[in-house]
Amino acid sequence: MPKIQTACIYINIFLVIATVIALPVGKVTRGEELNSGNFVFRHLDNQTEWPSGWAFMLAWLAPIWSIGSFDSCVHMSEEALHAAKAVPLGIIWSAGSACVLGFLTLTVMAATMDPNVSNTINSKFGQPMAQIYYDALGKDGALGFMIVLCFIQYLIGLSLIVAASRQAWAFSRDGALPLSTFFRHISKRIQYQPVRMICGLAVICLILGLLCLINNAASNALFSLFVASNYLSWGMPIFCRLVWGQDRFYPGEFYTGRLSKPIAWIAVIYLLFGVILSMFPTTGPNPSPADMNYTIVINGFVWAGCMTYYFLFARRWFTGPRMTVDDNISTNSDNEISGSVAIGRESAIDTKSE
Question: N or C: which terminus of the chain carries fewer CB neighbours within 10 A?
Fold first, then answer.
């Protein structure tokens, strides 16, 4: 899996560089002119019923979604060396590089796309990006780039499964999830991986993916579940630390000093902005049932379900992260794994495997 992740990084960077070079070159080679700087940086084409100012704000949904996986580094922290410093740096580098590469890509796309935005949005291909590639590179070039994009989407899915399985396994290890005893099992035959949790998550993803077959409104609500829930989960502990935890806060290896509190407040405001923004329908204030944003419905169901599970059941046994995992809470087996991991501090682990 590390090799696959490394390959994914290189392919992503290669695709960005290739796109940035190929689109303008292809456009000029076909005898067409690039769009002006005024069109690229100042033109606003409002395709919604919202006022132009709010339509501009809704455009933030794209970067909010694209740079929303900064938490992936955190999910892998228990397997990282010097995690207290490596994980924050990983978040900064991943989000920062995504901002730079994303800005370059969007600038080139705006410079090479059809000035009539409706032609791109309502593309016969069903994908505006495919239309941009087609206009600049022709059929063969567009097909080649879209094949690479589809392959990258598959690799991104693998990355998400890796991060989600590690996070879910940690919660199962701590007894926070239903069927924790079953899912916290790790397999010795497959390099000590949480195979049951990985398979369980894959099945859940397949079931949730069936919602995409209903209509675009259902799929958009499912995708925005990530934005709203992820941003809320990040904002709450930061806010609680600022309001109630100042006296109990001890700086770690990565600390921004006096800038820590202003950065935290900016983060809380931005995360709250992202949560609220994800709830709005993108077409206008009077959407049809097909255009309605059902994010609050799906998120409300998930949040209510989690709270109900905790107050009715989990609060009776879940007290927070476990410092050790011993034989009594491990899966029965003939082999024993002994090691040490860092969970806030170095602690011994004894767990069973296949």
Answer: N
**Residue 11 CB: number of other CB atoms within 10 A?**
14
Nearest to 35 by CA among 46, 23, 47: 23
CA distance 344 to 215: 44
Cα(24)–Cα(145) distance, integer angstroms: 15
**Residue 5 structure tokens:** 């992740």
Query: In degrees, to the nearest 5, what angle opens at C-alpha 181 toward C-alphas 171 and 198?
Result: 60
Tell me the residue type at 151: F
Mean per-residue pLDDT pooled into runs of 10, the chain (354 residues):
75 90 92 90 88 89 74 68 83 84 90 90 88 92 92 83 83 85 85 86 86 76 78 90 84 87 93 89 85 84 88 84 55 38 37 41
Which residues have C-beta within 8 Å of that of residue 154, sequence separation ≥ 6?
A: none
Q: 340: which 2 tokens? A: 């040490």
The answer to whether 353 touches 184, Cβ cutoff 8 Å, is: no
Which residue do the tokens 């609220």 mark?
276
Q: Give the tokens for residue 21.
A: 């070079």
Q: Return the bridge partners of 193, or none.
A: 187
Q: Which residue, among 217, 233, 208, 221, has the nearest Cα to 278 in the 3D structure? A: 221
**Following DSSP, what letter does each residue of 291-327 receive, concatenated?**
T---HHHHHHHHHHHHHHHHHHTGGGT--S--S-B-G
Chain mean position to CA 50:
27
